[in-house]
Each structure stands twice: as structure tokens, then as C-alpha cells.
């Protein structure tokens, strides 16, 4: 874990960020996530779950770079996320009112609108993931770290656990593109 903290400091400087908090949360499911700043941390936070802490050093390095890239690109502070939440809630309330009023045609239209918002949101998140991969590679290279090797190691590790249905088209219903597509975008596919 010490190597991770040293790399975090190097990447923080490469990104030009004044602060970065890196924490481990062994109970957290998933690999890692970028969190918004809050009053307990002066700047961006990257939280590593138990799975990510146990990964090989190159995979941890790429994961750190990827999550830091989300901060660097402004993904954790984008007000669009709040507007999406408000829009989804408004559609839900309107659908409830339409159902109570027996306005089934309106309810169908609202359900269609909600589905379109959900699919568009997932597409936006997939674009963010690809952008974070590209930015992570640039940050790692700028910091003098093995960016291409680290990103290739991360994608190789993710490819093993990427479900078949996700790669076969199920990614449309999630916020992450298939791993093979992410690797291909960085020309890391072999």
C-alpha cells in the first residue's frame, strides 16, 4: 500500500491538484471510486475497496490514475449529475400522479421518457469512463510512471471478471463500457 501512496503523491503533482486523499475501505464492494470533496477532506478523494487493495501493484497504479482522472476531468463535480437526479425524481412523481389519475397514456409517455433519460445517462457515464482511461494514461506518462503497462494490466485484470452478457451488449444498461472496448480505445488490445 505504501507504493500506492507514493504514486498518489506523484500523480497529484502531475495533475496539478493541491490536495488528494486516498483511503482504503475493505468492506466496500467494487474496485475503487472517486468521491466528491467534503468537509472532512480538503480535496478530491479516491477510495479503494478490498478488491482493489489486493490487486497487483500495476493494476492499483492504473486504478489510482483512472479515479484521479475522474477528478481531473471534473466528473465528480459536474452539476449535470444533480440535474439528472432531479429529472428522474420529477418523472417518478409525475408517473405516480398519472397512475393515480388513471391517465395511462401519460404514464406510458412518462415511462418512455424515464427509460430514455436512464439510457442517455448510462451513455454519458460510459463516455466518462473512456475519457478517464485516456486521461489516466496521460497523467501516468507525465508523472514518469509506466502508464501503458499499468493500463494494460488493469484492463487484462478486468477482462477476466467482465461478464459475457456485458461484453455482448448488456453494457448499454450500465455506466461502464466493455473492457475490450476500453482497451481498444487506448490501443492496448493485443
Automatic annotation (TrEMBL):
Keywords (A to Z) from UniProt: Hydrolase, Membrane, Metal-binding, Metalloprotease, Protease, Transmembrane, Transmembrane helix, Zinc
Molecular-function GO term, any one: metal ion binding
Ranges in coiled-coil conformation: none
Transmembrane domains' residue ranges: 90-119
GO BP field: proteolysis
Protein name: Peptidase M48 domain-containing protein
Limits of the Peptidase M48 domain: 62-187
Organism expressing this protein natively: Sphaerisporangium siamense
Cofactor: record remark: Binds 1 zinc ion per subunit.
Pfam entry (one): Peptidase_M48
Needed co-factor(s): Zn(2+)
Family: Belongs to the peptidase M48 family.
Amino acid at each position: 500500500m505504501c507504493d500506492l501512496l507514493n504514486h498518489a503523491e506523484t500523480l497529484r503533482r502531475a495533475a496539478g491538484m493541491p490536495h488528494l486523499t486516498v483511503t482504503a475501505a475493505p468492506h466496500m464492494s467494487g474496485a475503487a471510486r472517486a468521491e466528491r470533496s467534503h468537509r472532512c477532506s480538503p480535496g478530491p478523494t479516491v477510495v479503494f475497496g478490498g478488491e482493489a487493495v489486493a490487486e497487483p501493484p500495476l493494476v492499483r497504479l492504473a486504478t489510482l490514475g483512472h479515479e484521479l482522472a475522474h477528478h481531473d476531468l471534473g466528473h465528480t463535480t459536474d452539476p449535470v449529475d444533480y440535474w439528472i437526479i432531479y429529472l428522474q425524481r420529477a418523472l417518478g412523481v409525475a408517473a405516480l400522479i398519472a397512475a393515480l389519475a388513471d391517465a395511462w397514456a401519460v404514464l406510458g409517455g412518462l415511462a418512455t421518457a424515464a427509460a430514455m433519460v436512464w439510457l442517455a445517462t448510462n451513455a454519458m457515464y460510459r463516455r466518462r469512463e473512456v475519457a478517464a482511461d485516456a486521461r489516466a494514461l496521460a497523467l501516468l506518462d507525465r508523472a514518469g510512471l509506466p502508464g501503458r503497462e499499468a493500463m494494460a494490466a488493469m484492463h487484462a485484470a478486468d477482462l477476466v471478471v467482465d461478464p459475457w452478457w456485458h461484453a455482448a451488449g448488456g453494457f448499454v444498461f450500465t455506466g461502464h463500457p466493455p473492457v475490450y472496448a476500453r482497451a481498444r480505445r487506448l490501443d492496448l488490445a493485443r
